Every structure is written in C-alpha cells, then in structure tokens.
Amino acid sequence: MNEKPLWWEKVLYTGFAFLMRRPGLYRIAGKLGAIFFPLHQLVNGTRLDPLRNWTRTREFPAPSRESFGDYWRKKKSREEANHGHS
Fold first, then answer.
1. The model's pTM
2. Cα-Cα end-to-end distance for the chain
3. d(C-alpha 84, C-alpha 34), whole Å
C-alpha cells in the first residue's frame, strides 16, 4: 500500500532533516529535550499529550544525565591521560 505522508509528517521530516544537518542546533535540542522531559510527564497519556498515540503503549526512558558526546569526550580524555603515563 502506497500512502502519501500527511502534511504534518512532511513538516516533521523536513524539520528533522534541518536539525540533523546542524550539529550545534542538534546539541541544543538535546539539552532542551532533557529540560522539558519533566513537563511531558505532566501530560503523559492525556489528551494534551502530543505523543499520546506512541506513549499509550510505550514509555519514554528518562533522559541520561550526560549526553553521549560529553561521555565520549571524557572517555577519550581519560584514555589519553592514561596512555601518557605509560
């Protein structure tokens, strides 16, 4: 079955592509997501929940306290420090 995406799906896909092409904006969006996550918990599963169709059968995991990028930079820094002392 070939269904055309709905207008709002096109807008979301375009916005996603825009964000993925801009690493700085992507990092900001990740931090904002972590900040606004507790607000989503207030509407989770209610009619006000914009993700209701998805969250009806699933739960978002709590965001990590540390981004993967931050974790990776710290890990590399520790490894470089350890190799420097060998």
1. 0.57
2. 61
3. 35
